[in-house]
Amino acid sequence: MTAFISSVFGVLEILILIALGYFLTARGWFNDHSSKIIAKVVTQVALPAYMIVTIASKFTAPMLLRLLPDLFFPVLSMMILFALSFLVCYLLKVPHARKGTFKSMFFNSNTVFIGLPVNLALFGPSSLPYVLVYYMANTTIFWTIGVYLIQGDGPRPAKFDLKKALGKVFSPPLLGFMLGIVLVLLKIKLPTFLMADLTYIGALTVPGSMFFIGIALHQAGWGKLRISKEALGIFSGRFLFAPLLMTALVAFAPVPTLMNNLYFAILHAGHDQCACCCQTVRCGFRLRCYHGHRNNAAFDDRDPNRDDLHPVHSLGVAVE
Questions:
Q1: Considering the entire predicted model, what is its pTM?
Q2: Membrane spanning segments where (predicted)?
Q3: Residue ranges of the domains in the chain?
Q4: Average pLDDT over residues 71-76
Q5: Among 58, 186, 187, 269, which has the highest number of CB atoms less than 10 A from its own CB?
Q6: Residue-level pLDDT at 195
Q7: CB under 8 Å to 183, separation ≥6 — which residues?
Q8: What is the pLDDT of residue 272?
């Protein structure tokens, strides 16, 4: 019962922050420009700082080295979901112009604006390395396979840009994580004042992410939200197939219980890089699922007005 109450409070913390972001947007404090600034501050400043200070202060070299084999689980689960997305796409008869977007959202997750803040609220800083293990796999696959699929929906032939993909994979959050690992492995201690600054900056991560979601939810507009068969197909991927698959992969594997719970939580998230509004539709359902897991244990700068890059228009979930 104590774990249940604690997890409920953790979810309420997040919902209150989202509601505050929604309310302030309704009052005119935030707009589309504000959301872009918040997203950049979170992903390029606050989150990297949080990675550095948390890894450097709370983990040891042996603890981090034990995480490397765990990359197997998220990579395998995403590859299986990727293959399954073709079958679901065929059964739902998704139009050709939306197939790439559908498949990408079916097997990708959001580990920055949903997965990380939710896990920090429910499981604390000890969850960070496991979230980052999934983040590395998810980010690499999204900015290679995922983006290639989405480009295929546009009028021009899809092409893979290795330089751009590497730039997205080695994003500020991942670089902050890597720097934290280097500090731990080399046993380098940062000055106290610098650690304090990083702590203050990193504290912006969760509230900033939740404000961003609240802003997006208000901008989507409740009256414009609608559910299509493609959206239901994506929901099945995130809420049905992904959790069942991860259950089969890690339920009996020799991994920490916390890691099991974290992967289940992250798997419910969709990728914000493509459809933040679709994200907000799922947010309420996703958060309500998390207390069960607790009891058992990069924003991008694409023009949202371009239909070929904004799958929300295609999926019929939310339109600007």
A1: 0.68
A2: 6-25, 37-59, 71-92, 104-124, 130-150, 170-188, 200-218, 239-259
A3: 2-315
A4: 86
A5: 269
A6: 94
A7: 52, 55, 56, 189, 190
A8: 40
